[in-house]
Amino acid sequence: MAPNPQEDNHDDANVARAAKLDTATLSDALDKLGIAGQCHLIQPRSGGFRMAGRAWTLLYGPAGKPAGTVGDYIDDVPPGSVIVLDNGGRENCTVWGDILTEIAHRRGIAGTVIDGICRDVALCLQLGYPVFSKAHWMRTGKDRVQVEATGIPVNIGDARVAPGDIVRGDADGVIVIPKEHEAAVLDAAEAIEAAEDRIRQAVRGGMRLDDARRQFKYHQLQTREQA
Fold first, then answer.
1. Residues 111, 130: contact at Cβ < 8 Å?
2. pTM of the model
3. Mean residue pLDDT across the chain
Protein backbone atom coordinates (compact mmCIF):
# COMPACT_ATOMS: atom_id res chain seq x y z
CA MET A 1 0.00 0.00 0.00
CA ALA A 2 1.32 3.46 -0.92
CA PRO A 3 2.32 5.70 2.01
CA ASN A 4 -0.15 8.38 3.10
CA PRO A 5 1.50 11.80 2.71
CA GLN A 6 -0.62 13.02 5.62
CA GLU A 7 1.38 10.65 7.80
CA ASP A 8 4.82 11.49 6.36
CA ASN A 9 5.84 13.92 9.09
CA HIS A 10 8.65 12.13 10.88
CA ASP A 11 11.65 14.21 11.88
CA ASP A 12 13.50 13.57 8.63
CA ALA A 13 16.75 15.09 7.45
CA ASN A 14 15.19 17.60 5.06
CA VAL A 15 12.85 18.99 7.73
CA ALA A 16 15.89 19.41 9.98
CA ARG A 17 17.73 21.20 7.18
CA ALA A 18 14.78 23.54 6.61
CA ALA A 19 14.56 24.29 10.33
CA LYS A 20 18.11 25.66 10.25
CA LEU A 21 17.32 28.12 7.45
CA ASP A 22 15.28 31.30 7.80
CA THR A 23 12.29 31.95 5.57
CA ALA A 24 14.00 34.87 3.81
CA THR A 25 16.81 32.61 2.59
CA LEU A 26 14.35 29.88 1.61
CA SER A 27 12.26 32.49 -0.22
CA ASP A 28 15.30 33.53 -2.27
CA ALA A 29 15.92 29.88 -3.14
CA LEU A 30 12.30 29.42 -4.20
CA ASP A 31 12.57 32.51 -6.42
CA LYS A 32 15.78 31.22 -7.97
CA LEU A 33 14.03 27.99 -8.91
CA GLY A 34 10.82 29.69 -10.05
CA ILE A 35 8.65 28.11 -7.34
CA ALA A 36 5.81 30.10 -5.75
CA GLY A 37 6.05 28.99 -2.12
CA GLN A 38 5.71 32.22 -0.15
CA CYS A 39 2.43 32.39 1.78
CA HIS A 40 1.28 35.98 1.28
CA LEU A 41 0.23 37.88 4.44
CA ILE A 42 0.41 34.79 6.69
CA GLN A 43 2.17 36.02 9.82
CA PRO A 44 3.09 34.65 13.27
CA ARG A 45 0.93 35.64 16.22
CA SER A 46 4.26 36.23 17.99
CA GLY A 47 7.55 37.27 16.44
CA GLY A 48 9.24 34.55 18.47
CA PHE A 49 7.29 31.68 16.89
CA ARG A 50 9.31 29.19 14.83
CA MET A 51 8.22 25.93 13.23
CA ALA A 52 9.20 23.36 10.62
CA GLY A 53 7.42 20.17 9.67
CA ARG A 54 5.45 18.38 7.00
CA ALA A 55 1.99 19.61 6.06
CA TRP A 56 -1.20 17.97 7.28
CA THR A 57 -3.89 19.70 5.21
CA LEU A 58 -7.56 20.53 5.66
CA LEU A 59 -10.00 22.49 3.47
CA TYR A 60 -12.99 24.45 4.80
CA GLY A 61 -16.09 25.59 2.95
CA PRO A 62 -19.30 27.47 3.80
CA ALA A 63 -21.49 25.68 6.31
CA GLY A 64 -24.42 23.64 5.04
CA LYS A 65 -27.73 23.12 6.81
CA PRO A 66 -27.36 21.32 9.09
CA ALA A 67 -23.81 22.60 9.45
CA GLY A 68 -20.91 20.18 9.55
CA THR A 69 -18.12 20.27 12.11
CA VAL A 70 -15.42 22.93 12.14
CA GLY A 71 -12.84 20.46 13.38
CA ASP A 72 -12.81 17.16 15.27
CA TYR A 73 -9.64 16.09 13.47
CA ILE A 74 -6.92 16.97 15.96
CA ASP A 75 -6.38 13.46 17.38
CA ASP A 76 -5.66 12.15 13.88
CA VAL A 77 -2.76 14.55 13.23
CA PRO A 78 0.62 12.86 13.75
CA PRO A 79 3.16 14.55 16.04
CA GLY A 80 5.68 16.71 14.21
CA SER A 81 3.17 17.81 11.57
CA VAL A 82 2.28 21.36 10.68
CA ILE A 83 -1.51 21.65 10.55
CA VAL A 84 -2.43 23.62 7.41
CA LEU A 85 -5.99 25.00 7.36
CA ASP A 86 -7.41 26.55 4.20
CA ASN A 87 -10.35 28.71 5.24
CA GLY A 88 -10.39 30.60 1.96
CA GLY A 89 -8.77 33.65 3.53
CA ARG A 90 -11.91 34.36 5.55
CA GLU A 91 -11.46 37.02 8.21
CA ASN A 92 -15.05 36.98 9.51
CA CYS A 93 -14.74 33.78 11.56
CA THR A 94 -12.05 31.68 13.19
CA VAL A 95 -11.23 27.99 12.75
CA TRP A 96 -8.66 27.66 15.56
CA GLY A 97 -8.92 28.33 19.29
CA ASP A 98 -7.72 27.40 22.74
CA ILE A 99 -8.89 23.76 22.87
CA LEU A 100 -7.08 22.95 19.63
CA THR A 101 -4.00 24.87 20.80
CA GLU A 102 -3.85 22.94 24.07
CA ILE A 103 -4.22 19.54 22.41
CA ALA A 104 -1.80 20.32 19.58
CA HIS A 105 0.81 21.55 22.04
CA ARG A 106 0.39 18.47 24.25
CA ARG A 107 0.65 16.09 21.27
CA GLY A 108 3.86 17.61 19.91
CA ILE A 109 2.43 19.09 16.72
CA ALA A 110 4.92 21.52 15.19
CA GLY A 111 2.52 24.40 14.52
CA THR A 112 -0.59 25.62 12.72
CA VAL A 113 -0.94 27.71 9.55
CA ILE A 114 -4.29 29.24 8.60
CA ASP A 115 -5.44 30.97 5.43
CA GLY A 116 -7.81 32.91 7.62
CA ILE A 117 -7.83 33.82 11.30
CA CYS A 118 -7.51 32.31 14.76
CA ARG A 119 -8.59 33.29 18.27
CA ASP A 120 -7.52 32.69 21.89
CA VAL A 121 -4.07 34.04 21.07
CA ALA A 122 -3.23 34.41 24.77
CA LEU A 123 -2.91 30.63 25.19
CA CYS A 124 -0.70 30.31 22.09
CA LEU A 125 1.61 32.89 23.63
CA GLN A 126 1.51 31.26 27.06
CA LEU A 127 2.35 27.80 25.74
CA GLY A 128 4.67 28.96 22.97
CA TYR A 129 2.62 27.04 20.41
CA PRO A 130 3.28 28.53 16.94
CA VAL A 131 0.21 29.78 15.08
CA PHE A 132 0.52 31.64 11.78
CA SER A 133 -2.53 33.31 10.26
CA LYS A 134 -3.77 36.45 8.51
CA ALA A 135 -5.05 37.96 11.76
CA HIS A 136 -6.93 37.06 14.92
CA TRP A 137 -10.50 37.80 15.98
CA MET A 138 -12.88 36.14 18.40
CA ARG A 139 -15.95 35.11 16.31
CA THR A 140 -16.40 31.37 15.97
CA GLY A 141 -16.56 29.48 12.71
CA LYS A 142 -19.32 27.23 14.09
CA ASP A 143 -22.34 27.29 11.75
CA ARG A 144 -20.37 29.51 9.38
CA VAL A 145 -17.84 27.07 7.88
CA GLN A 146 -17.33 23.31 7.89
CA VAL A 147 -14.66 20.76 7.00
CA GLU A 148 -14.87 19.78 3.34
CA ALA A 149 -11.84 17.49 3.02
CA THR A 150 -8.51 16.53 4.52
CA GLY A 151 -5.37 15.26 2.84
CA ILE A 152 -5.73 17.31 -0.34
CA PRO A 153 -3.73 20.22 -1.81
CA VAL A 154 -4.88 23.55 -0.38
CA ASN A 155 -4.20 27.25 -0.89
CA ILE A 156 -2.44 29.27 1.80
CA GLY A 157 -1.74 32.90 0.94
CA ASP A 158 -1.68 32.13 -2.80
CA ALA A 159 0.76 29.26 -2.32
CA ARG A 160 -0.15 25.64 -3.02
CA VAL A 161 0.41 23.32 -0.08
CA ALA A 162 0.14 19.56 -0.63
CA PRO A 163 0.17 16.92 2.11
CA GLY A 164 3.75 16.11 3.03
CA ASP A 165 5.26 19.37 1.78
CA ILE A 166 7.73 21.02 4.14
CA VAL A 167 6.29 24.09 5.86
CA ARG A 168 8.66 26.54 7.56
CA GLY A 169 7.63 29.55 9.63
CA ASP A 170 9.48 32.27 11.50
CA ALA A 171 9.21 35.98 12.31
CA ASP A 172 9.01 36.87 8.59
CA GLY A 173 6.11 34.55 7.77
CA VAL A 174 5.61 31.14 6.17
CA ILE A 175 7.02 29.35 3.15
CA VAL A 176 6.15 25.96 1.69
CA ILE A 177 8.66 23.72 -0.07
CA PRO A 178 6.96 21.30 -2.49
CA LYS A 179 8.03 17.77 -1.72
CA GLU A 180 9.15 17.05 -5.28
CA HIS A 181 11.54 20.04 -5.21
CA GLU A 182 12.74 20.04 -1.61
CA ALA A 183 16.27 18.80 -2.26
CA ALA A 184 16.91 21.46 -4.92
CA VAL A 185 15.37 24.24 -2.79
CA LEU A 186 17.37 23.29 0.29
CA ASP A 187 20.61 23.01 -1.70
CA ALA A 188 20.04 26.47 -3.19
CA ALA A 189 19.13 27.99 0.19
CA GLU A 190 22.20 26.55 1.88
CA ALA A 191 24.41 27.95 -0.90
CA ILE A 192 22.82 31.39 -0.50
CA GLU A 193 23.25 31.28 3.27
CA ALA A 194 26.92 30.28 2.96
CA ALA A 195 27.59 33.12 0.50
CA GLU A 196 25.87 35.64 2.78
CA ASP A 197 27.98 34.47 5.73
CA ARG A 198 31.18 34.91 3.70
CA ILE A 199 30.06 38.36 2.58
CA ARG A 200 29.40 39.44 6.17
CA GLN A 201 32.81 38.20 7.25
CA ALA A 202 34.51 40.00 4.36
CA VAL A 203 32.72 43.29 5.08
CA ARG A 204 33.62 43.06 8.76
CA GLY A 205 37.21 42.72 7.63
CA GLY A 206 37.02 45.98 5.68
CA MET A 207 35.96 44.89 2.18
CA ARG A 208 33.43 47.00 0.26
CA LEU A 209 29.99 45.40 0.05
CA ASP A 210 29.86 45.51 -3.75
CA ASP A 211 33.28 43.87 -3.98
CA ALA A 212 32.26 41.16 -1.48
CA ARG A 213 29.05 40.40 -3.32
CA ARG A 214 30.92 40.16 -6.60
CA GLN A 215 33.65 37.94 -5.14
CA PHE A 216 31.16 35.47 -3.67
CA LYS A 217 28.81 35.57 -6.70
CA TYR A 218 25.88 36.70 -4.58
CA HIS A 219 23.75 38.01 -7.43
CA GLN A 220 24.18 34.83 -9.46
CA LEU A 221 22.93 32.80 -6.50
CA GLN A 222 19.69 34.81 -6.42
CA THR A 223 19.13 34.98 -10.19
CA ARG A 224 16.26 32.87 -11.44
CA GLU A 225 17.35 29.82 -13.37
CA GLN A 226 16.21 29.62 -16.96
CA ALA A 227 13.91 26.76 -17.88
1. yes
2. 0.90
3. 92
CATH superfamily to which 5-23+34-177 belongs = Ribonuclease E inhibitor RraA/RraA-like (3.50.30.40)
List, for residues 184-223, the tens digit of each pLDDT value. 999 999 999 998 888 888 888 887 888 778 877 777 777 6
Q: Quote the DSSP letter at residue 85.
A: E
What percent of the chain is modeled with pLDDT above 90?
76
Give per-residue pLDDT as tens, 71-119.
899 999 999 999 999 999 999 999 999 999 999 999 999 999 999 999 9
The one-letter code for the residue type at 22 is D
Q: Put residue 88 in one of left, alpha, beta given phi > 0 → left and psi -120 to 50 → alpha.
A: left
What does the H/E/C string look like for 88-140?
A: CCCCCCECCCHHHHHHHHHCCCCEEEEECEECCHHHHHHHCCCEEECEECCCE
- The span from the CA of 133 to the CA of 202, in Å, is 38
For helices 182-204 and 23-33, what crossing angle results, to 10°? Answer: 120
d(CA 215, CA 219) in angstroms, rounded, equals 10
Q: Please enumerate in sequence order all residues whose Cβ is within 8 A of that of 72, keeping only pairs 6 or more positions apart, or say none.
A: none
Q: Where are the domains of the chain?
A: 5-23+34-177
